[in-house]
Write a sequence for this structure.
């Protein structure tokens, strides 16, 4: 790429072997989704005054969209540009809707979605099944699921990563299926990535992969990747050890997600 380096990329290494299973019926992600996600490299850097190039702002996502669309990544299938945590304002608006931080996303999320669509890309956003996101921003507790799903659809978002900080296992068992229904009810096809299994140890009997395949397009099974080879290897080892459980769970529209891989170019 032009500046010499693609800081981090999301590449879903979902199993190649697929079996015939029922998938979430939104027509999306028949092949494993590919694109870019902000978290691994840019975390919750919100200091746009001191660090304007790396802070979580619309500029970062526009820059990445330009790289994906101008440097050949889109043609290879890297079409998702995904916002992670720390995008929102600390307060909901007067109608109770999530809203982006007004200084860092002055154009709003819909404008960013249109920027992606104009270039043949897709925009992903981040929410959290719980009272707060992992970074302490407003979460989506059970009573906010419908309004947040509708807000994302109104913004023309294409994918939701639904994290699981600040909720217990009972709330998660209710909230993840409810969000799936709420996204469907908006009428907009929105890819649904569930962090649920990662919060339940990733394995049966706590995790029901049959159910996950029916409600989510994609799920994080295991911990976050970190910026080290040890971290990459620990994830590879875990997927290797548990492949007999994980392989049958995957298929068109329903994928295991080992998290991003780090690509330095
Ligand atoms: C909602 O679910 C129905 C039934 O599974 C499916 O036919 C429809 O395409 C879904 N719509 C969206 C927007 O996901
Ligand atoms: C897992 O989920 C499926 C589909 O929702 C359900 O039919 C099945 O009973 C569940 N299995 C267990 C062990 O709870």
């Amino acid at each position: 790429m032009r500046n010499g380096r693609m800081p981090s990329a999301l590449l879903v290494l979902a199993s190649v072997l697929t079996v015939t299973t029922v998938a979430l019926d939104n027509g999306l992600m028949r092949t494993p989704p590919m694109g870019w996600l902000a978290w691994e490299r840019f975390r919750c850097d919100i200091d746009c005054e001191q660090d304007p190039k790396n802070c979580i702002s619309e500029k970062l996502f526009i820059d990445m969209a330009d790289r994906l669309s101008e440097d050949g990544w889109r043609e290879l299938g890297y079409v998702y540009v995904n916002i992670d945590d720390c995008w929102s304002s600390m307060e909901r608006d007067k109608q109770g809707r999530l809203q982006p931080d007004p200084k860092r996303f002055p154009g709003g999320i819909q404008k960013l979605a249109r920027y992606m669509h104009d270039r043949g890309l897709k925009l992903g956003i981040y929410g959290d099944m719980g009272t707060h996101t992992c970074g302490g921003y407003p979460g989506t507790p059970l009573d906010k699921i419908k309004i947040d799903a509708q807000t994302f659809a109104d913004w023309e978002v294409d994918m939701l990563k639904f994290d699981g900080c600040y909720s217990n296992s009972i709330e998660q068992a209710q909230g993840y299926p409810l969000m799936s229904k709420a996204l469907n009810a908006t009428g907009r096809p929105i890819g649904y990535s569930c962090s649920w299994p990662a919060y339940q140890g990733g394995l049966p009997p706590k995790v029901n992969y049959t159910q996950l395949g029916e409600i989510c397009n994609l799920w994080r099974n295991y911990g976050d990747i970190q910026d080290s080879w040890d971290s990459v290897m620990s994830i590879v080892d875990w997927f290797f050890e548990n492949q007999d459980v994980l392989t049958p769970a995957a298929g068109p529209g329903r994928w295991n997600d080992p998290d991003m891989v780090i690509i330095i170019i």
